[in-house]
Design a protein that fits this description.
The complex is a heterodimer of chains A (244) and B (618). With 244 residues, chain A is mainly α. Chain A is built from 14 helices and one strand, in the order αααααααααααααβα. Chain A has one domain. The chains are: A mainly alpha (244), B alpha+beta (618). Chain B: Keywords: Coiled coil, Membrane, Transmembrane, Transmembrane helix.
Chain lengths: 244, 618
């Protein structure tokens, strides 16, 4: 546990050592605000809830999370530090987990810094704060799922651009799994049961269900299982590529 | 090497399968394990529902029809269908085996489709091929009772629990509720002595007959109220005997539900015309009251006062060709005036009333009066006498001063009622109700008359009703709601949608007040000018009467200039309000879009500078 903590601190610290982290946070905050007020029409619709704010989160993550995750392993591989990391007295699991937690905490910080919008809505009216809290939790879990996907893909390639594009593409599929666009494609081959199962794999439907204000054990299990599975795959991939 | 690759590949494949399996399994196992964080606990069954479910004696069978295949392209509807399904599952789990649930996917042209129609579901036609979609709930009980929700409308989500609980409750008690009516107005069919013809019942009565077992009770001979009767409707009670009052009093204390319609002026009340004094009919007392019972309940109601409201005043035409004018005594309640959280008034668009009264609750009363229909703050009251003498509705605006109070035109009285006859004794006498009771009070009877809400046309012998207001819905909702048990009534609709920006509303309200003050000022100045003009006119000689004197012209000109000025000020108030709202919005946008990023940038720069200092120091 201590090893994980040490690694976690080192990783998180390294984010803030470069301007990239600040640029990321600034872009995330500015876009989240602009989308909420301009595309979502938050002020004009006059309703004291944060729907226009959270509705854009999946799409913001779609581009910003791959940008964070692309360098998680690809960078280490490219610069050769991956060998160094793996010769340290840490297990593969600890390394994968600590790196993931650091990146997740980083996105969590970015998410926390959106708090003025919560204050704004509380100033303007009396929103259902339980719903807002649940939405934040759902958004954070969804970010974790995006990140786990990105972490695994970053480990599979040396090239950061490839990692970015592949991550965005896979996440896009996971996001869209519940929409007719994807379901229609699968409908040609599978019975309805399978289609519903695919729809049940969608980030979007689980996020929407949490952001209604209900923390359903099934949604929690879904996100945690997604994170766990992709991180496990991450470790397997690194193990396989170690020799390359 | 190849071996390793293969091994890893298969490990990943197994992992993927495992993942899907975990998600699917948890979907099946952990249904209903959730934490409801919403303020109103929107997604948790209420106590009333649990009680109804616990009290089912004979098994009830529910059939949930959802066209699974037909709705493949409608994910929104599917999400709602899942929500309905989960709620039904939870209800079935809580009923201890007394509630059976069948989930049916009626395929096009199947027997299930016919069954859905027989059970009372409504088909939603989709596609050109005549395929139908079903999304509704039907139920049966052991005594062949049937009930259905023809379509589960996602727009009515907040009343889903109430609707389903009502359906189950209706099946569990298994007989048509009996509604008793005591009315001094010609609400039911009968012989009309003035036209010497049979007259039709009012549209509200016709609707009532379709849904309930309705019994007309005669007020003079009313001594007891049959225990069969679950809801008693009093329309325009006039001079009820003590026996009748005692019967009603005990009915309420026994747990019976009551709806009372009283009125300061019931325009439909027929008064015997007196040939020697034709004006007497116009001045006759057409009010009704229930003083003894109201006093016992702590309800304050004055039959000598009529509510006026400028906000909800309806336009009426007084004469052929004349432009319609707003009548502050004839009101069309909409929007905020109709309680959105009560199942009887939520979702209704308009309720029209005419010369309505209002209720208040004595401050010592232990009961609760929940408003169902309420005036705006721009309301006041006027003596009934003045209303009767009225030749021109515009006169009501003279000296109109809103009291700023919200008057309750219709309300729901809840709590433990006390008898109005404490002196009576006897083995069946009740001094107080055991459980919380429900009484709906409405201070207008004209709202039940056809002229205020429905047009009836004769179409080849068929009567077509064409409603232009929701008065009938309100009446039926009220009676329907009161036929339910108190548990059922306690399941409130849980409105989710309306959480307005109160800060912005406040800006608007302040501006509105300023606007109104200015308007009143303008009106006063107009009156003043008119007075001066008349004064000047009276001072003139007869031959000059048709010509404006220079003084009059001057006065008129002065007023016109003043009018322009005030108009300008009024426009200024509006403009200022818009600007205030907009600038608040801009400020908030700036804070949310730029403030935080700016702080982060400053922090980063500060951090970099500090680091450089550190390095330089080293």
């Amino acid at each position: 546990m201590n090893t994980i903590l040490t690694l976690f601190k080192r990783e998180l610290g390294s984010y803030f050592a470069t301007p990239v982290a600040y640029v990321f946070i600034v872009i995330f905050l500015a876009l989240a605000g602009a989308f909420t007020f301009y595309l979502g029409g938050f002020y004009e619709r006059g309703q004291a809830d944060l729907q226009p704010f959270f509705n854009f989160h999946p799409w913001l993550y779609l581009f910003l999370v791959p940008a964070v995750s692309m360098r998680m392993w690809a960078e280490e591989r490219k610069s050769g530090t991956i060998e160094l990391l793996l010769t340290l007295p840490v297990t593969m699991w600890q390394a994968v987990f600590a790196k993931f937690l650091a990146a997740w905490a980083f996105i969590g910080i970015a998410l926390l810094l959106t708090f003025p919008v919560w204050i704004t809505v509380d100033y303007l009216g009396s929103p259902d704060n339980g719903v807002i809290f649940a939405s934040y939790l759902g958004s954070f879990l969804m970010a974790g799922a995006f990140l786990a996907v990105g972490s695994c893909i970053s480990a599979a390639t040396r090239n950061q651009v490839v990692a970015f594009i592949l991550t965005a593409a896979v996440c896009f599929l996971f996001l869209l799994a519940g929409t007719p666009l994807v379901l229609d494609f699968f409908r040609a081959f599978f019975p309805q049961g399978v289609i519903d199962a695919i729809a049940g794999l969608s980030f979007l439907s689980h996020f929407t269900s949490i952001s209604k204000g209900v923390i359903d054990l099934r949604d929690m299990i879904y996100f945690l299982a997604t994170i766990g599975v992709w991180l496990y795959a991450n470790a397997v991939v690194i193990d396989l590529k170690k020799a390359d | 090497m190849n071996n390793r690759r293969l091994l890893t590949g298969s490990a990943l494949a197994i992992l993927a399968v495992l993942f899907v399996a975990v998600v699917l399994l948890s979907n099946a196992i952990f249904r209903g394990a959730r934490l409801d964080l919403t303020t109103n606990h929107l997604y948790t069954l209420s106590e009333g529902t649990k009680k109804i479910l616990g009290e089912i004696d004979e098994p009830v069978h529910l059939y949930y029809f959802f066209s699974d295949k037909g709705t493949q392209n409608n994910q929104g509807l599917r999400t709602y269908a899942t929500r309905v399904r989960e709620m039904l599952d939870e209800m079935a789990a809580r009923a201890g085996g007394k509630l059976k649930l069948d989930v049916i996917d009626p395929l096009p042209y199947s027997e299930d489709e016919d069954r859905a129609t027989t059970l009372g579901l409504q088909a939603i036609p989709v596609g050109q091929g005549g395929e139908n979609l079903f999304f509704g709930l039907a139920g049966t009980n052991s005594t062949n009772g049937k009930a259905a929700i023809p379509i589960l409308d996602p727009a009515k989500e907040e009343f889903l629990e109430y609707d389903v609980a009502k359906l189950i409750h209706g099946l569990a008690i298994s007989k048509k509720p009996v509604v008793g009516i005591v009315s001094s107005l010609p609400i039911s069919a009968g012989f009309d002595p003035s036209t010497r013809q049979m007259r039709d019942p009012w549209a509200v009565q016709q609707q009532l007959d379709q849904l309930f077992d309705v019994r007309q009770l005669s007020a003079p001979s009313l001594k007891t109220i049959d225990p069969d009767i679950s809801v008693l409707v009093l329309v325009h009670p006039k001079d009820l005997t003590d026996d009748a009052l005692y019967a009603i009093d005990q009915f309420v204390l026994r747990g019976g539900h009551l709806a009372v319609f009283v009125d300061p002026i019931a325009e439909s009340e027929q008064v015997q015309s007196d040939p020697s004094n034709p004006a007497a009919a116009a001045m006759a007392n057409k009010s009704s009251d229930l003083p003894k019972l109201f006093k016992a309940w702590g309800v304050l109601y004055d039959p000598n006062k009529v509510v006026l409201d400028r906000t909800y005043a309806l336009q009426i035409s007084t004469a052929q060709g004349a432009p319609p004018i707003r009548h502050v005594g004839i009101l069309g309640f909409t929007g905020a005036s109709l309680n959105p959280d009560d199942v009887t008034t939520a979702k209704l668009q308009t309720i029209n009333t005419s010369s309505a009264g209002f209720f208040q609750l004595d401050k010592d009363s232990p009961l609760k009066l929940v408003p169902l229909i309420q005036t705006s703050k721009d309301a006041t009251t006027v003596a009934t006498e003045r209303f009767k003498m009225l030749s021109d509705p515009k006169q009501l605006l003279n000296g109109y001063e809103p009291t700023g109070q919200l008057y309750i035109v219709a309300g729901r009285l809840q709590g433990k009622f006390k008898s109005a006859f404490p002196e009576k004794t006897g083995k069946d006498h009740l001094a107080e109700s055991k459980d919380d009771g429900q009484i709906v009070l409405v201070a207008d009877t004209d709202m039940l008359t056809d002229r205020l809400w429905v047009q009836i046309q004769n179409f080849f012998g068929q009567k077509l009703t064409n409603a232009f207001a929701n008065n009938g819905d309100f009446f039926i909702n009220t009676v329907d709601n009161l036929t339910g048990s108190s548990e059922l009534i306690s399941i409130r609709g849980r409105a989710t949608s309306q959480r307005p920006f109160t800060t912005v509303e406040r800006i608007k309200r302040t501006a509105d007040e300023r606007f109104r003050t200015k308007e009143t000022q303008l009106q006063q100045e107009l009156n003043e000018t008119e007075r001066k003009l008349t004064e000047l006119q009276s001072g003139k000689s007869k031959d000059q009467a048709m010509i404006l004197s220079p003084e009059q012209q001057g006065e008129l000109l002065k007023f016109q200039n003043r009018k322009l000025e005030i108009r300008k000020e009024l426009r200024g108030v509006r403009r200022q309000m818009d600007a205030d709202i907009e600038s608040l919005g801009t400020r908030l946008k700036m804070i949310n879009i730029f403030l935080m990023p700016l702080l982060v940038i400053l922090l980063a720069l500060g951090f970099a500078w500090w680091k450089r200092q550190q390095r330089a120091a080293n």
